[in-house]
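Hello,

I think I submitted the inosine-5'-diphosphate job twice by accident. Can you confirm which output corresponds to this input? Input:
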Amino acid sequence: MERSLVLIKPDAIQRGLTGEIITRLEKKGLKLVAIKMIHLDRSLAEKHYAIHEGKPFFKDLVSFITSSPIIAIVFQGDNVVNIIRRSMGETNPAESASGTIRGDYAISIEHNLIHGSDSSQNAAKEIGLFFSSGEILDYSRDIDRWT
Ligand code: IDP
Ligand code: MG
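Support: Only one job matched these inputs. Its output is below.
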């Protein structure tokens, strides 16, 4: 059973796209097991994006992700990392297919609406930064036998 961390980024919150983004992932059939709204501080933002430290866009990325509240979500299910990455589209919205979240609603690589973990291992690390184990809920859904 895999988990993935999704962040609804500041641009999505400001543009009123929170519901749309969650709806798409929920309608896909993904199971939500944790959710919270937070305003990231610099320290947590730098930890979350540590892999990009030293890259030319790192400073602007940290400024952006701390500029306004975000919503952090954990989804759980088979292959959930890959399913979410495909639903998001490419990192650069200009190269994202229509039908994906970034392809339908974003234009710029700096303002691409959503974060999704890129591997199971990174998901585990990222989820640990945002949620305590007690905040991730264990429950069953009757619809899971239909999805
Ligand atoms: P991802 O969000 O699709 O996983 P990453 O490569 O992990 O993409 O990069 C993290 C975030 O950093 C991206 O979502 C994007 O907002 C930003 N970013 C990545 N590459 C560039 C770039 O070349 N210029 C400006 N911003 C970038
Ligand atoms: Mg990434």
